[in-house]
Amino acid sequence: MSVNLKEIDGVKIQPKHLALCHCGSVKIELDLPDGLIDLRRCDCSLCRRRGAIAASVSLDGITVLEGQEHLKLYQFNTNTAKHYFCGNCGVYTHHQRRSNPTQYGFNVACLEGINPLKVEGIPTYDGVNHPADQG
To answer: Which family is this sequence assigned to (predicted)?
Structure first.
């Protein structure tokens, strides 16, 4: 089941929507002409600890406007996925996906004006039994 949204709690998702970490050091612009695509949670060891709802965007659909120097990279296990977070406040902003390296997942909670607690019905992907780990 795929969840796509053009609005959350009366706030429209803009075709070019701003995303910020908590302290504002990292400012990202996301290309979202179709709204939020493929919203999900994951139960891998990292995602279940951070608890974020992620949505999808193509690699060229994300632009770091400010704070590239504050972004820190974290990788684990196969080192395929690239998880980025603000080195000042620690908030996860986005990651290049292991399941689809041509996409970024981004933290819906970082979207300007969006309350992720108002989003319902988000599926959880099985990151514990990821196909790349089978074999």
So the answer is: Belongs to the Gfa family.
- The tens digit of pLDDT for each residue in 64-116 reads 999 999 999 999 999 999 999 999 999 999 999 998 999 999 999 999 999 99
CATH, residue 74: 2.170.150.70
Q: Other CB atoms closer than 10 Å to residue 18's CB: what's the count?
A: 14
With respect to residue 134, please indicate whether it lies within any of the assigned structural domains.
no
Residue 130 located in a structural domain: no
Domain assignment of residue 40, given as a range:
12-125
Number of domains in the chain: 1
